[in-house]
Structures are given as C-alpha cells and as structure tokens.
Amino acid sequence: MEVIELTKALISCQSVTPKNDGVLDLLEKDLSNIGFDCRRYLFSDSNTPDVDNLFAKIGSGAPHICFGGHTDVVPVGDIDAWSFDPFNATEKDGKVYGRGASDMKSAIAAFVCALKEYIENNELKGTVSLLITNDEEGPAINGTKKVLEEIYKNGEKIDSCLVGEPTCPRKLGEMIKIGRRGSLTTTIKVSGKQGHVAYPEWTLNPINPLTSILDALCNLELDQGTEDFPPSNMEIVNISSSQGATNVVPQTATGVFNIRYNINHTKDSLQSMIQEIISKSNEDGKYKIDISFNNSAEPFLTQKGKFTNIVKSSVDEITGMNSALTTTGGTSDARFFKDYCEVAEFGLIGETAHQIDENVNTHDINNLKDVYLLILKKYFA
Questions:
Q1: Is residue 309 helix, strand or coil?
Q2: Is 353 helix (H, G, I), strand (E, B) or coil?
Q3: Annotated active-site residue in 30, 52, 72, 333
C-alpha cells in the first residue's frame, strides 16, 4: 500500500480508454482489504464503447466525502520516442515515469493510501467513497455521469467531492480548482454550387460566407471575465471543403470551432448569438447553411466556504504555498459531480500530462498523500 508502489502498479495496467486491463480489479482488491464495499458498474450506449466503473464506500451517514478520479489514460503516441516503457513505471532521479503518472493514477494512489492511514488511526464518523471511471479521457458517456445517476437512484447522497485531476502548473500547491468554464462546439456546413473556377458566374463558392462568419465570430469580445473566471474564448479548430481539383469551386465548406465560456453566458445565449450572425451573413438565402451544436459542459462555480477552506488550508499547510482558487483549464468530471454536491479539484503538476515521458516527482506524490490525509482529518473533525 506504500503510495509509490501503488502508483507504479496502477501505471503498469495498460488502461487506455476504455480498456480496463485489470486496473479496477487492482483498486477493488486494495480497497476491499481496507474494508470498503466495492461495486462495479458496466454501462453501454449506442456508438460508444462499454465502460467499467468502480464505486467503493466505507462508513455510513453524513457527512459524505467522495473522491472522484479516472484510471483510463490517453494513448502513448510514438512509443519509440519514450525514454522508458510507458506501461512499466520507472523511478529515476526522484521521478516516476509512465503513462498516467500525472493524469491521474498517482493521485488515486495518494488518496487510497491516505484513506488507509486515516482509517487505521481514526474512527470514521461519516462516509468516504471513491468513484473511479475508465471513461474520462474518452466520450465520458458511460462513466461518472451514469454512475452518479445510478447510485442516486439507489438512495446515495454525497455532500462533498474532491477530484484528483492534476491542477498545478509548475509547483504542487499552486492551484485548486473550484469551477470550470463550459464548452460549446459548433459545426457550420455551408452548401454552394460546384463549378469551374474560371466561370464564377456559374458557381456559388461556400468558402466565402463560411470565412465571413468565422471572421465575425473571431472579432467578437465575448466578455472580459469575472472575479472568478477568465474571459470566454473562441478557437477555430477545423476548416475543410469538399474534395476537388485546384480549378474547381467546392460544393461545401465546413468550419468547426469551440467556445470555452464562463457564467456570463449560457448554452442557449451563445447558440442564439451564433445563429444571428449566420442569419445576417446569408440574408439573401443564396446558401444552404446547416448548424450543429455539442455542449459538453456547462460552467459552474463552487461557492467558497467550509469545504473550500478545508481543502485550501490543507494544501497550504503541507506544501507551504498560498494556493489560488481558480477556474482555469479544460473540462473534467467535476462537471458531473457539481449537479449533486459541492466539488473542488486538487492534484499533481499537470505539465507533462498526455506528453511523451509523462512523469511526476515522488516527493510530490508523498506530499499529495499527506494533503489528502489532512483534508480527511479536517473534514471529519
């Protein structure tokens, strides 16, 4: 159960989304030995892989704190570019190397070891649980969201959640997440009329209105941010047209962009704004324009109070930092927990997450275990 050894054991499982490769079995065995009641949830959905999930619980009644995490990892990329086998955790020069070291198998190991130490030395006056999915890096359809729905149908109630995502940019203790921006992806497909480039009078080039729409959107200042959120931003992620030769005006052109938005906006307000800009660009109705939206996350903010104070004071005490409560970064499974309870995120340094030679400092893993232990002590004090 020593935290570095458990980290290495978790990394050794090749649990690339949605593959399990025994990683949840390993966790279930260790948690069962501590006294946890472990339940597995296998979910299916159309057009997505089946996903295995673990919900483990010990104790009873309130308060109930849940640790949220994921054992799945992203693909390794060019394996020949790695200095070490990405699924044979290597300890060298004070670091552990391997896929998932930063994001986020070390944090899971730290929480499990903190729990073991807490339970051995304290009477648990409440409930501790872990919700571990193998679908955070993937579609996130058959993971945390469905587990929460299922356990709440069965009468479960979580008061607070701590998600172990890597939250720190450079030093452990720099940053705690208490919210996240929303994420809206929009696809615009413009249909025109294909033809010879030398005869524009016989064609209708769909690229022209598409670039006009994207230019109008890019020049918008969505907002200036809030006290807790950075400004919303829009980024074009793909532009393409139907295939053809260099002397052919294409039939269709497609643009895809993503907006990371704060609480100044809603999904509906952004969609209305986008549709208005598109309508103005095509007032004469010459082009057929199809729009599709995918809102994968709503913005949220956990109110500062007792729980956030417990997390911050524990982080600061162990790390010696003055941690910032922020909402920066991308989405995480905290977006699902926020519908059920207050949620904060704290984990290791994310600088090498998803990179070749992903790694974390062993000193930071041990300190993270101590942070989690102190949070448990203060939470149940």
A1: helix
A2: coil
A3: 72
What pTM was estimated for this model as a whole? 0.92
The structure tokens listed for 38 are 């472990």
Q: Which architecture characterizes domain 182-297 according to CATH?
A: 2-Layer Sandwich (3.30)
* Residue spans per domain, the chain: 3-180+299-379, 182-297
Contacts for 178 with CB less than 8 Å, ≥ 6 apart: 228, 301, 302, 304, 308, 325, 326, 327, 344, 345
Options 30, 135, 136, 156, the catalytic residue: 136
Architecture per CATH, domain 3-180+299-379, reads as 3-Layer(aba) Sandwich (3.40)
Annotated active-site residue 136? The verdict is yes
Q: How far apart are CA 345 and CA 354, in angstroms?
A: 19
Q: What is the pLDDT along the chain (381 residues), one digit of tens a residue?
A: 599 999 999 999 999 999 999 999 999 999 999 999 999 999 999 989 999 999 999 999 999 999 999 999 999 999 999 999 999 999 999 999 999 999 999 999 999 999 999 999 999 999 999 999 999 999 999 999 999 999 999 999 999 999 999 999 999 999 999 999 999 999 999 999 999 999 999 999 999 999 999 999 999 999 999 999 999 999 999 999 997 789 999 999 999 999 999 999 999 999 999 999 999 999 999 999 999 999 999 999 999 999 999 999 999 999 999 999 999 988 999 999 999 999 999 999 999 999 999 999 999 999 999 999 999 999 999
Query: d(Cα 106, Cα 94) in Å, to the nearest integer?
Result: 14
Q: What tokens appear for 278 in the block?
A: 């598109």
